[in-house]
Specification:
- With 423 residues, this protein is α+β, with helices and mostly antiparallel strands.
- The chain folds into 2 domains: 5-168, no CATH class; 211-394, no CATH class.
- Helices cover 70% and strands 8% of the residues.
- It has helices at 5-35, 92-104, 109-118, 126-140, 144-150, 157-206, 210-255, 257-284, 288-327, 331-334, 338-349, 351-360, 367-394; strands at residues 44-51, 55-62, 67-73, 76-79, 82-86.
Amino acid sequence: MRPSSFDTTSRRAARLVLAALLAGGAVAAAGPAQAQPRGRESGVVSSQISISRNEATLVLELARGDSLAVVLREGRIHLNGREIGTYSRGDALDRAWRELLNRAIEADGAELERLLVEWEAPAGGEAGARLDRLLEEAVRGGATGALAQASGGSGDTVSILEARIEELQQTIAELQSRLASETDRDRQRIEREAARDMAHRQRARTQRGFFHWVRSGLSNLFSLLVTYVVLVALGFAAVFFGRRYLEGVADTARHATLRSGLVGLATLFLLVPAFILGALALAISVVGIPALIVWVPLFPAAAGAALVFGYLGVAHAAGESLAERRFEGTDWFRRANSYYYVLTGVGLLLALFAASFVFEMAGPWLGFIRGILLFLAVVLTVAVAAIGLGAVLVSRAGTRPVAPSALEDGTAPPPPVEEEIDV
């Protein structure tokens, strides 16, 4: 796998930083040395030695004011920042150079000069021979021109350092510019992907098609049909086991609609507080713990049963009212009974839901009408629940129904029509 240009530039910057640090160390060492009086025109004034696993460095401050930095690092030989040859890790030149540095660590100036002059590079290597020659010439002071040529044509370490720093600054600026451009490209790519995903979702929503809405509407109609069947079954059971009570609730809902609605609405608001207060009262009483065990499950069950019974009572009243308007004076009315009233009344109360689901099958174009119908259906259901619950409470579960009052013209209401129980 080829390294990227970004990795190559990073490694190059790291090398430049290390070179700058080495050159800076040389300048720092050169500063105090130049301040000292020179005892002679050649030789070594001071030295700095650094040995690590991958690097072996020798920095010399010469008596004539020049500095010499020899660095063996990662297979390359550098003299004052310029490469003069190569070597292999652990070869004869590497071992000989490290051995020389180990011996030179404890040596003073005169002994260090002797070691550098007497050191011989391993035979057979051009880089080692050149390094040996330059070291000997630098210590003896007889080849200043050759040393300057090997180090790049100038012995001015400060100029070299300034050039390296400028190059490093340019490299850092290039890296920053490249990083900014990479960040901009990544941000633009993310924005394009987000816009493409949003457009895809919008297109998917607009392309759902006719069959999606038909399937959704039919599914809701089927759920409504199941609800209708369950309510009708409960209504038939109520007629079979307690027809008189169901008719009492229905008569109360018909003839005391406003009263039943107000009582039921108030009861709906008071159900939860009554349950909580009753539980607290039983919990703090001495003999209330057994009653609390009965109160907690039975109160919600009784409230739910009253709501369902009241709803069926209102449905019975609605079916009876419809039968009077449609079949008055006919034989079919005489054959109507409570089962028929429940069957038609529940259908009337759920008609708005069915209409809204039918409009749903037309798609989003008639969604406004569907929303209105659904809202009216919910309002009607809440009103029926309130009237039914109030009728249950006012009639005391149908045992004391509210009788119809006299008609507006002063005549008495007609007698109730006898109904046949057979379905």
